Amino acid sequence: MAFRPDAGRNLPHEKIRLLRALTSKRGQLVETRKRLLAQIKAHGKLGSADMFEDMDAELKDLLDRQITELEVQIEEIIAADESLARTASILRSVPGIGPVASTMLIAEMPELGQISGEQAAALTGLAPIAHDSGAMRGRRAIGGGRRLLRHVLFQAALVASHHNQVLKRFADRLRTAGKPHKVVITAVARKLVTIVNALCKNRQKWTTQSA
């Protein structure tokens, strides 16, 4: 509310609401598929895989098809809107940001490009928050924000820390300084969201100078 006083009074436009619904459903199906694969693995360890092999295979095929259908719908909505298509192109130009991450950023963070980098980090829950009381007193930690979006950005940061040469050097410096893995990935994710926010604000694609 501090970043956008009009938030809560203006609903996102129809295409954003539709994208949000589709990405949410896709996420639910992906989680269901993960649980199914875990169950299949457990059946294998227990020696009961043969009992459910056909049933599990049929369910996995169904989930695969439904996820693919949702992804096609998402791509069609983005492609049909010039502004959304341009934003998606900008986001996907950044090594580490793929179709899933770009769609989630578009659907769950319509403020992208209209706010500061610090505000973008705060909205995704990647800005360090100082604790002034309790057991965490004197320490800083991330929290709040849009949890689903933060999870996607963590996944993007993992990829970027190895395949985006600018962010790989940034991550390597932190690792050399002895920072724990979680701290490194959180810092990369925070830098990543500030970069994509700036790119969207300037309507420019990624270059190695973007960071």
Automatic annotation (TrEMBL):
Residues 89-170 form the Transposase IS116/IS110/IS902 C-terminal domain. One of its GO terms (molecular function) is transposase activity. GO terms for biological process: DNA transposition. This is Transposase. It comes from Shimia aestuarii. The lineage of its organism: Bacteria, Pseudomonadati, Pseudomonadota, Alphaproteobacteria, Rhodobacterales.
